[in-house]
Amino acid sequence: MRWKGRRVSSNVEDRRGGGGVKAGGISILGLIVAFVAWKFLGVDPQQAYQATKQVTAQTGAAETQGLDNPTPDQQEAMDFVGTVLADTEDTWSQIFQQQLGQQYVPPKLVMFSGVINSGCGTAQSAMGPFYCPADQKVYIDTAFFKDMRTQMGIGGEQNQTELARQDQAGDFAQAYVVAHEVGHHIQTILGISEQVQKARAQGSKAQGNALSVRQELQADCLAGVWAHHNNQRTQFLEQGDVEEAMDAAHKIGDDYLQKRATGQVVPDSFTHGTSQQRMTWFGTGFKSGQVESCDTFNQAI
C-alpha cells in the first residue's frame, strides 16, 4: 500500500503514553476473550473490560496522556493512521457530494494505549478499534495492528525485516480496519445507527444481534466503497493489498473468532457476520463504489 507523502489529518488526538494503564503483557487469551466478548458476543463494554482486567491483572488510571517524545515507530504509526484518516476525509467528502448531495463531516480519531474514557464509557485496548456514536470519535490503539499480525496471523507471513517496515504487507488490512470504523461514522451521520438502535430496543436479543450483523456488514461494504474511490483518487493499492483486506475480514468473522476462542460457533450470538459475509460485503463495496450497493438491511446477506 502506498501511503507516504500524502496529507495527514489534523483530526487525530494522540493520547498514548503517560501514566495510564499499559497494554503490554496481554496474552492471546486476554486479547481474544475481551475482543470476542465485546465486539462479537454483545457484552457490555464495561463488563468486557472488567473481564479482561481479571485476565491480565492490570490496574491503574483510566486514561492515558499524549506522547511527549514518540519513538520513530510511534511517530510512523501516527503518520500512517493520520494519512488513512485524511484519505477517508477527502474520499468521503467527494462521495457525499457526488452520490448523496450532502456535506461530509468527518470524525475525530483518538490514538490511545491501555485504557481510555470515551463518550461510550471506559474502553480497553485489547477490545480492538471501535467507534463511539455518542462523541463521534474512532478509538484505536495501534498495538492492535501488531496483534493482527502476531496473534491473529493477518499479514504475518513476511520475514522480520519486512515486518519492520510500515509499508509492510498487512498495511492495507490495517487501513481497512480504520475504514470500517469510519463506516460506522457514516451510518451515524446518515441516521442509520439511530434507526438500528431503536429497532434493537424493540426486539428480542436474537433479533437485535441480527440487526447488528447487518449494520456491521454495511460498515464493511462502506469500507470497500472508500477503497474503490480512494484508489481512483490516489492509486494507493499495490498487488496483494485487496487480498490482505479479505484476509482481515475473514479472520475477524464471528464464526472464526468464536471457534478460535471457545472451540464452538453459536450463530444466534453473531453480531458482526461470518467470515464469508464480511469478505463478500467488503468486495461488494469495492467493486461497485456505490453507497446504494451497501443496503444490507433490505438484501439477503
TrEMBL record:
Cellular component annotations (GO), alphabetically ordered: membrane
Keyword Amino-acid biosynthesis: no
Gene Ontology MF annotations: metallopeptidase activity
Main location: membrane
Locations listed in the record: Membrane
GO BP, one annotated term: proteolysis
Mode of membrane association: Single-pass membrane protein
Parts of the chain that traverse the membrane: 21-41
Keywords assigned: Hydrolase, Membrane, Metalloprotease, Protease, Transmembrane, Transmembrane helix
One Pfam family named in its UniProt record: Zn_peptidase
InterPro entries reported in the protein's UniProt record: Uncharacterised_pept_Zn_put (IPR007343)
Protein name, UniProt field: Metalloprotease
Lineage: Bacteria, Pseudomonadati, Pseudomonadota, Gammaproteobacteria, Moraxellales
